[in-house]
């Protein structure tokens, strides 16, 4: 029987941890979400692939003013998007999967990535739909914005705040530790 607050908190965190990081919960959740978006969006990762490449490289420029307006060039936008998606976890994760699981692990990573493309597409579209401009004219948005503005009901603000706090903790502590321990 726990006697102090630290033991009670540890027991709670341990039970949540064993549920979330259990054998199959996250795999089913992530792949199920990807499958849902793949079907709901009409296999967007297949049928819109050519259009995506055309938008990405159609008027590729190295200078932001090339299109007649100030801002990011298409190269800067691509480099920023790739930097946000590919990190230490992708490199170390693929290497670890190959060593631990053999070549079959790469196949299952491709399957998960295929489903993840539809989830990523949905997140990007939601971020574009629910973005706003602040008082100084800068565009602001992201998951906390589309959670609070896209969901209806009293839980929307709570979920957006919870996400914001969780991402601060993850990026401030956990993300740095993964990078530091992977090198």
From TrEMBL:
Its main location: membrane. Coiled coil: none annotated. It is a multi-pass membrane protein. Pfam families: Na_Ala_symp (PF01235). The chain crosses the membrane at residues 20-43, 77-99, 105-126, 158-178. It comes from the Bacteria. The keyword Ribosomal protein does not apply. It is found in: Cell membrane. GO terms for molecular function: amino acid:sodium symporter activity. Keywords: Cell membrane, Membrane, Transmembrane, Transmembrane helix, Transport. GO terms for cellular component: plasma membrane. Belongs to the alanine or glycine:cation symporter (AGCS) (TC 2.A.25) family. This is Sodium:alanine symporter family protein. It comes from Campylobacter concisus.
């Amino acid at each position: 029987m726990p006697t102090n607050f630290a033991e009670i908190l540890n027991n709670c965190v341990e039970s949540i941890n064993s549920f979330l990081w259990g054998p199959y919960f996250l795999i089913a959740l992530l792949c199920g979400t990807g499958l849902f978006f793949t079907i709901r969006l009409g296999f967007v990762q297949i049928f819109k692939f050519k259009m995506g490449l055309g938008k990405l490289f159609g008027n590729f420029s190295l200078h932001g003013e090339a299109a007649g307006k100030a801002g990011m060039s298409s190269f800067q936008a691509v480099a920023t998007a790739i930097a946000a998606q590919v990190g230490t976890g992708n490199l170390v994760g693929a290497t670890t999967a190959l060593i631990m699981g053999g070549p079959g692990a790469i196949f299952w990573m491709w399957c998960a990535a295929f489903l993840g493309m539809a989830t990523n597409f949905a997140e990007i579209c939601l971020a574009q739909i629910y973005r706003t401009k602040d008082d100084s004219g800068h565009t602001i948005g992201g998951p906390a914005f589309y959670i609070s503005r896209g969901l209806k009901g009293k839980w929307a603000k709570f979920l957006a705040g919870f996400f914001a706090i969780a991402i601060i903790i993850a990026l401030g502590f956990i993300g740095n530790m993964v990078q530091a321990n992977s090198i």
